[in-house]
Amino acid sequence: MTDTPRTPDQPGTEAQQATTEKQGLAPYDVVLLLGFGGPEGPDEVMPFLRRVTAGRGIPDERLAEVGSHYDHFGGRSPINDQNRALIAALRGELDSRGITTPIVWGNRNSAPFIDDAFRAMHADGHRRVVALTTSAYSSYSSCRQYRENLADAAATVAEEGIELSVDKVAQYAPRPGFAAANLDELVRSLRALDGAPDHEIALLFVTHSIPEAMDDTSGPGDGEGNLYRRQHLALASELAQEAGTLLGRELTGELVFCSRSGPPTVPWLEPDVNDRLRELAAEGVRTAVVAPIGFVSDHMEVVYDLDTEAQQTADELGLRLVRVPTVGTSPVFVSDLADALLERAAEARGEPVPQFEGRRPSVCEPGCCPNLRQARPALCGSD
Ligand SMILES: CC1=C(CCC(=O)O)c2cc3nc(cc4[nH]c(cc5[nH]c(cc1n2)c(C)c5CCC(=O)O)c(CCC(=O)O)c4C)C(CCC(=O)O)=C3C
Ligand SMILES: [Fe+2]
């Protein structure tokens, strides 16, 4: 914070915000929420898994193993229902700001697919799309792959004479609003702990493991790499510090990983949450507070890999595991997504937008978060 008086031409002032809100999401006429997708019944599990891993060389045993996670939940992932709820919440938030721009949904790996979303938008007369992913961080899997999905879908519908222009909201993990939404959840969970002494509590921030090579190349092509990991570390340390200050506790957090796949010969980010729980129990920790900051809703990685598998590890060790909710449809998160959309629209109109540490450009830099298997067309970037 500075005490410099704000003038109307400074980015992020109230005057600026007022114009921003008045113009709504212009020049965009539709919002596309991009999800990962998931099976909604037992028959959809294997087709879904084959789509996720197409051309990826994931062994069949791993597919069968992941399929069995879905079996625990009747062959249905919660992810699509969570995205329906997110769209409803975002609709409510935009409505409350007088913004009527429709929100359409498209998934990478299950219906409704992105090409169908494009067809539906076009049929309704929409031509300028602003896309928002349900993944907050920068990496090939969580950013560029969605941009490739957009390019594939655009190419498919172009053959039918359908042309749309698509821009994207930058990955939002570095947004102060994303930190605020996660902090709310963390503080609520910590408050609910009984009088456990600080030195018996471990605070574990969890995210999806990715191959080390994918992390090494995440971020701008001419940057330092490891942006996926750095974004998580920055958020984790901010959350641990702010939660500690708010609650007057001495909390140190650390980053751990879940949901590793691929052959054991390929290194992925570590430590695995289960391995770390074992070490911590041996060091005298009694309570593990597990905050899945890498995910925006409680989908399969959370309800299986954490609430089922890591919970079982904790049970075996006699550890109490407290799982912090993901941001889901929390009002702070949804409001920040609405802000991010408004800022993207303002940027498209050539207006200034608020700056903050770690802000990602809305148009990805050349070579950022590359596809290491095969270079492919991707929208919303400068390459
Ligand atoms: C970074 C990241 C996110 C977070 C960002 C984002 O949300 O996009 C994410 C999300 C998700 N990942 C999901 C599911 C799966 N991910 C897999 C495989 C992989 N994920 C990877 C990375 C990520 N994944 C990677 C590097 C692989 C290896 C193969 C590949 O390069 O693709 C596999 C294949 C089987 C396996 O090997 O585990 C499945 C079934 C679901 C749906 C859950 C549900 O159904 O509720 C969600 C939200
Ligand atoms: Fe995944």
Automatic annotation (TrEMBL):
Among NCBIfam families, the record links this protein to:
hemH
> What keywords is this UniProt entry annotated with?
Cytoplasm, Heme biosynthesis, Iron, Lyase, Metal-binding, Porphyrin biosynthesis
Where are the compositionally biased (Polar residues) regions?
13-22
Which organism is this protein's natural source? Terrabacter terrigena
Top-level taxonomy:
Bacteria, Bacillati, Actinomycetota, Actinomycetes, Micrococcales
Please give the catalytic activity noted in the UniProt record. Fe-coproporphyrin III + 2 H(+) = coproporphyrin III + Fe(2+)
**Superkingdom of this protein's organism:** Bacteria
Q: What class of enzyme is it?
A: lyase
Q: What is this protein called?
A: Coproporphyrin III ferrochelatase
Functional note: Involved in coproporphyrin-dependent heme b biosynthesis. Catalyzes the insertion of ferrous iron into coproporphyrin III to form Fe-coproporphyrin III.
Regarding protein family, the annotation reads: Belongs to the ferrochelatase family.
Q: Where does Fe-coproporphyrin III bind?
A: S77, Y146
CDD domains for this protein: Ferrochelatase_C (cd00419), Ferrochelatase_N (cd03411)
Q: Does the keyword Phosphoprotein apply?
A: no
- InterPro entries hit by this protein: Ferrochelatase, Ferrochelatase_C, Ferrochelatase_N
| Pathway the protein acts in | Porphyrin-containing compound metabolism; protoheme biosynthesis
| One Pfam assignment | Ferrochelatase
Q: Where in the cell is it found?
A: Cytoplasm
Binding annotation for Fe(2+):
H208, E301
**Which SUPFAM superfamilies does the protein's record reference?**
Chelatase (SSF53800)
